[in-house]
């Protein structure tokens, strides 16, 4: 057995909102019943293998800063890629268990050595997945979702499923087939496809129509194989408007919904909504969730936060209870996340170099979402927003509203009617009052 990577931390427990212990939860109390279910079952938190264990803080201007001995060891040649992957896996599972999260998420490239040679990579992945199964059994930590990295290797520069060369489509398909099966083996509850380079840099060299059709074919193949192997998890697409490509086809939830309808995939695929992707698309997180719930395609959430002044995917840990409350409110109104969860697709800033920074980051994120759950549940239970909303639209249940919606009245009849009646009067939308109402529920969470 290797030495613990976090020797100074035993486990993180709930100490309540008045606690000053930074290594405890102030709001995340997993067994507390909120709106009829345990907090843990509402939120289904997951840690992302990639940001927390497969990255070392390198950015485009500077080298890695974080203390990740498996990355340094492999780079210097002191460790074999397999030994490095094993050390990384031990540290990852030690972390999941000590933090007390029920789930994790991974890419093939995070979990196993990734040379880019398919035969080698598939064999290494199979070995590491078997090993992960043992770790999951030991710790009780489960898999929220798996995904294939179809964006790092140079061969995918022009996309995977949307590549102009079918050989690249085939290569990507092989990889997804392997990771979908690995996800099934680990009893993953979802499978995610983030189209990392499914988009374009310039339309001058791009055949949009072909690329859309290729992507649809790819997704159908994934769905077919899911059924063939008996994987009963949900297939999720993760909308993002741009980055790394100038334009990504899965731009936002509405765009994905239109795509799924056009290609007859709407009953098979849902969305994994990421906070920072919503804000990059120019939307509130709240909007993306409300849209997904209304379309019936909400699957899961990648919880993180952008930065108001930065226009890229900075993947900070969630810090705004207000932003999360509005999102969680939509999740609750929609009946919950089903097989989804809140995955922390978030990373430490590169100067957060102490090992326990990883705990502080996740504790803060989990407390932010847990407090948001309490506020959202209280808002929903009070029925104040819902009764306002019902009242605002009540006339649509009356005679005129029903005639319009049922198609029983046409344009000229409405003109006739309007000629006979006084012009309608407007009532207040009361936005500021409602904003204060939300603030009150957040302030009073306990
Ligand atoms: C990148 C995405 C990525 C996906 C998984 O912006 O958020 O991390 O969640 O490939
Ligand atoms: Ni993500
Ligand atoms: Ni992202």
Number of strands: 12
What does the overall shape look like? Answer: globular
- As a percent range, the share of helical residues equals 40-55%
Category from helices, strands and their pairing: alpha/beta
pLDDT < 50 stretches: none
| SSE order | EEHEHHHEHHEHEEHEEHEHHEHEHHHHH
Count of runs of 4 or more consecutive helical residues: 17
Listed once per kind, the bound small molecules are: D-xylose, nickel (II) ion
Q: How would you characterize this protein structure?
A:
An eight-stranded parallel barrel has the order 3-4-5-6-8-10-11-12, surrounded by four helices. The chain folds into two domains: 350 residues, Alpha-Beta Barrel (TIM Barrel); 44 residues, no CATH class. Helix 7 packs parallel to helix 8 and helix 11 packs parallel to helix 12. By secondary structure, it is α/β, with parallel strands linked by helices. The protein is built from 17 helices and twelve strands. The longest helix is centred in the C-terminal third of the chain and has 26 residues. It is globular, with a radius of gyration of 24 Å. The structure holds D-xylose and nickel (II) ion (2 copies). D-xylose (XLS) binds next to loops. One nickel (II) ion binds next to loops.
């Amino acid at each position: 057995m290797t030495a613990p990577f976090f020797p100074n931390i035993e486990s993180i427990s709930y100490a309540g909102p008045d606690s000053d212990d930074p290594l405890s939860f102030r709001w995340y109390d997993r067994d507390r019943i909120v709106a009829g279910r345990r907090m843990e079952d509402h939120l289904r938190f997951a840690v992302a293998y990639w940001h927390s264990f497969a990255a070392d803080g390198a950015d485009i201007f500077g080298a890695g800063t974080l203390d990740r001995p498996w990355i340094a060891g492999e780079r210097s040649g002191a460790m074999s890629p397999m030994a490095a992957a094993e050390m990384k896996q031990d540290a990852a599972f030690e972390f999941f268990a000590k933090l007390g999260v029920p789930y994790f998420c991974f890419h093939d490239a995070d979990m196993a050595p990734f040379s880019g040679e398919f035969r080698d990579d598939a064999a290494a992945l199979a070995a590491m997945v078997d090993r992960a199964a043992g770790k999951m059994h030991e710790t009780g930590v489960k898999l929220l979702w798996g995904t294939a990295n179809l964006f790092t290797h140079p061969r995918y520069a022009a996309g995977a499923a949307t590549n102009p060369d079918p050989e690249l489509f085939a290569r990507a398909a092989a990889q997804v087939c392997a990771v979908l099966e690995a996800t099934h083996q680990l009893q993953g509850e979802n499978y995610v496809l983030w189209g990392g380079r499914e988009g374009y840099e310039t339309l001058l060299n791009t055949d949009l129509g072909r690329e859309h059709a290729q992507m649809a074919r790819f997704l159908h193949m994934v769905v077919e194989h899911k059924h063939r192997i008996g994987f009963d998890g949900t297939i999720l697409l993760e909308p993002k408007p741009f980055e790394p490509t100038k334009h990504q086809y899965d731009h936002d939830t509405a765009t994905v919904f239109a795509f799924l309808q056009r290609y007859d995939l709407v009953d098979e695929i849902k969305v994994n909504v990421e906070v920072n992707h919503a804000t990059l698309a120019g939307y509130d997180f709240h909007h993306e969730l409300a849209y997904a719930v209304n379309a019936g395609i909400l699957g899961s959430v990648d919880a993180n936060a952008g930065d108001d002044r930065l226009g890229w995917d900075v993947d900070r840990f969630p810090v705004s209870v207000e932003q999360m409350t509005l999102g969680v409110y939509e999740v609750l109104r929609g009946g919950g996340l089903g097989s989804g969860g809140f995955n922390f697709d978030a990373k430490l800033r590169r100067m957060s170099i102490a090992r326990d920074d990883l705990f502080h980051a996740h504790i803060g994120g989990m407390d932010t979402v847990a407090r948001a759950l309490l506020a959202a549940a209280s808002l929903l239970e009070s029925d104040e927003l819902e009764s306002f909303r019902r009242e605002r639209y009540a006339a649509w249940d009356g005679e005129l509203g029903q005639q319009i919606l049922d198609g029983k009245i046409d344009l000229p009849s409405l003109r006739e009617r309007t000629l006979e009646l006084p012009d309608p009067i407007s009532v207040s939308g009361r936005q500021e009052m409602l904003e204060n109402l939300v603030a009150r529920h957040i302030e009073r969470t306990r």
